[in-house]
Amino acid sequence: MAEAAQGRVQEAVENVVQELERDSIRGMQATMFHCSARCCEDRAASMQQVQRCIERCHAPLAQAQAIVTGELERFQDRLSRCTLHCSDRAKDALEAGGGETRARSQLDACVAACGDEHLRLVPGMAKRMR
Predict the structure, then answer these.
(1) Could you give the number of structural domains in the chain?
(2) Which residue range forms the structural domain that includes residue 58?
């Protein structure tokens, strides 16, 4: 059960990232490369001017990539904290004499709930990344 929830979350995040890459990032990459090419075509510019021009062309894409990376890292951190909490609860139940089967069942249910909770967070994360 827990693996299925984790799989659904992973698939949802991958779909969002692929959609974002296809619908936004690729266009930004194309714009960056065209802009950079124009910088290189300016024969009157010095080497430093061309370099600064290329850096300006790259800035919007770098900013977008930083936003996506930050959102994905925060999402992963939240999911990790949730599953760690589940692990701690299962360990506590096991140490309290709840039995291994019961602790495993509790862990699976808790991790599945984490997955479901984080699955509901994916649309908001996607919106922030866009």
Answers:
(1) 1
(2) 1-129
